[in-house]
Amino acid sequence: MTGLDESVYAELDRVLTPVDALRLTRYPGAWPQRQPVHTCYVPADAVVPGLAAAWGTAALQALDEHGLPDLGLDPALVEEALPRVRAKLADEPVEDLRVDAEDGYRGTADHEDDDVLRAAALVAADVQAGTAPLSIGIRGKSLEAPTRRRGVRSLDLFLGALGAHGHRRAVVTLPKVTDIDQVKAFLPVLAALEAAHGVALDLELQVETPQAVLGPDGTATLARMVHVAGPRLIGLHYGTYDYSAALGIAAAHQASDHPAADFAKQLMQVAVAGTGARAVDGSTNVLPVGSRENVHAAWQLHARLVRRALERGFYQGWDLHPAQLVTRYVATYAFFREALPAAAGRLAAYLDGTGTGTLDEPATARALAGVVLRGLDCGAFDDEELLRAGGPERSVLDSVSGRWPGEDGQAAGRRTAR
User: Residue 353: inside a domain, yes or no?
Assistant: First the structure.
């Protein structure tokens, strides 16, 4: 009953097969390994031995001293989450560490070499002791002319020291990117650093300038940067204050929930979708320090911003102070625990083929599995709780989500093309 000749199908395949291959190269799919819930930035001159444990201890002390205020979250969820938060702060308080040799660094130019080398030695010692975070790296200075050589030199020193101590993987964060040519020029530098020091490098680009979002020709610079960087890129990180200031937003209104921030971050999400890189939220500089009143106010703000980001699909953000870990984990755990019952039930119905009030398709099932896996990864709940909620085993979740079996953390599955 068909009227089409085989030649029509053959011609369709001939035309679209190269397009299929190019699309798979450009959009290999989401990077499915564990994503940290935050990145903690610590100035190079402030790195101490046992840094992650020190941050966890300080966070627990702040919690014990000040107690939690009303964070605008479901009190029952907070009560459920709090024992797990305390355990997290004791066992794995920092999931991702970035030694900061840029804006956070307060040393002088003649001390930067010593500070960077000392920081690298301390981080490497923590790696060897098994107390370092899952992911570590450095933020150097920008590639603008006044800071270019100093920035690359700090990377060279830091990665050389890491390599000399036997550490073999790190992340480099490039701040204040303004031009696609900066990304192109930086890739050979990263390759040279890898060759010199034997440390495999992942790249993050920091979105802190309007030029990084929209180019002079009216095109979306972010999307072009992502594809120029290729499989080395693991994330775009939003820089709350530099970006806001560049738009002329008054300091009192510079925040990660400003409409200007939402615009930039939504473009970041679109630019990285399907590429394997991730869009990461920025920071708040309102720190939980000082009186109980000040600490509570900062925690309430931070918890609200973390929750807001999670609702919008930003599963990672910046933390700048140990006490921010309290609300990072309380808000994150409450979010995933709230999502668990419905996600587990819908997944079970999808896998069993039973009818529910919601018709879920494979893409939705992948998203549901991804949310549950994120909750497991960060410690919001465990496998037992997942099974009690009616969800499938982790291996089934891995399969539904598209996660590669047996890979976790900084596994290089999507970057084998390098």
Answer: yes
